[in-house]
DNA sequence: TATAAAATCGACCGATGGTCGAAAAGGAGA
DNA sequence: TCTCCTTTTCGACCATCGGTCGATTTTATA
């Protein structure tokens, strides 16, 4: 049961890369097994279906991103930067993705949606904790913290996902964030410059 | 060119219903042509591809919904109700959809996304007009109106799409809407009861 | 009625996700 | 080492799907 688990992880890694570069829909099982050098039967010995494999790949991704996010949360950055950092850590699109996947964005809808859903579940508690910290420090003042950060996350995802966002979008987003969390007007303005560049910049560790 | 257009409309209607009930991905071209009683070649005489047909189906849907939304806009409802009504009119999920599609929600991601995108483009101008009206009446007070209603729309879509939204979600949403548009605190509270029941209720005209 | 154009047909295709029975590979005990 | 059982691997095969294409019928036109 040790040998098998190794192989499974290996397959997940391969699929992970291919899904990011080519997209889920555009990566066939045949391509995966060719890359891995195994037979069809072996693949289906480890995974019930292609979609179930996607689920596991996503779990892998989220796990990594959550780790980064937790580091941000326990860092000594100021609260606003923590929130921004956590949101950046969970950015579904990373280096590799941006180029290729920007085009495939549409036909990759299934993966995209699943990631978004899973990401939400993982990110909300961490963001909520950061926001509570802001409340304690008197920087924020709001109730219903989880619901509020949820809205923040929704808007952040949906608005900055595509590249077509304007300065006005950013300005309104910041205004909304301030009011949503009960922060002082203008206290988040300094973020403005950062938002276009929030791409995850953690170096490749492979 | 008259006869052909009739057939095309007929095919669009059939596909429209099937996409709503069974979902786009789960409806095969073979099923559509069987339902329509035509051959494969005929289908591809009218549509370049299945996806292109989806595009036309969506255009059809949005067109109908936009008509309803425009009626709401030119009605004598108060501004807040207009905004709510417009958002309701563009609800991607309608009667038929709710039951079946709630389950298929996930695997129907492609259609769902395309609808969302198209809907956004159609709804924002109408919502903006309503919001401007609110500004003129002194009920709202905000700049960047299109960007603000865009956020409203994003959140509305994403939050109330699934059935898993709580009272807290609604409360925070209303709070956000007020602050986003610069409305008086509590002035939108009376909506609370309506939001769960915003399902499009226009009678079947078939 | 002759002829071109519009519309319909269905056999066929390549690719895809998935199945299945059989055969290696790998111990564990005798 | 031989036996027996489990784990793992193999690849031929399958059904379905979106899409193509040349042939044929229907319709309009002159």
Would you spell out the secondary-structure blueprint of this structure?
The structure is a homodimer.
Chain A: H1 2-22, H2 29-36, H3 40-46, H4 50-73, H5 79-89, H6 95-104, H7 109-137, H8 145-160, H9 167-181, H10 192-195
Helix pairs in contact in A: 1-2, 1-4, 4-5, 4-7, 5-7, 7-8, 8-9
Chain B binds a DNA duplex (30 and 30 nucleotides) through helix 1 and helix 3.
Characterize the structure shown.
The structure is a homodimer of 206-residue chains. The first copy, chain A, has 206 residues and is mostly helical. Helices cover 70% and strands 0% of the residues of chain A. Chain A has ten helices and no strands. The radius of gyration of chain A is 19 Å and the shape is elongated. The first copy, chain A, starts with a helix and ends in an 11-residue tail after the last helix. Mean pLDDT of chain A is 88; it is low at 198-206. Chain A binds chain B through residues 106-107, 109-110, 112-114, 144, 147-148, 150-151, 154-155, 158-159, 166, 168-169, 171-173, 175-176, 179-180, and chain B through 106-107, 109-110, 112-114, 144, 147-148, 150-151, 154-155, 158-159, 166, 168-169, 171-173, 175-176, 179-180. The structure holds a DNA duplex (30 and 30 nucleotides).
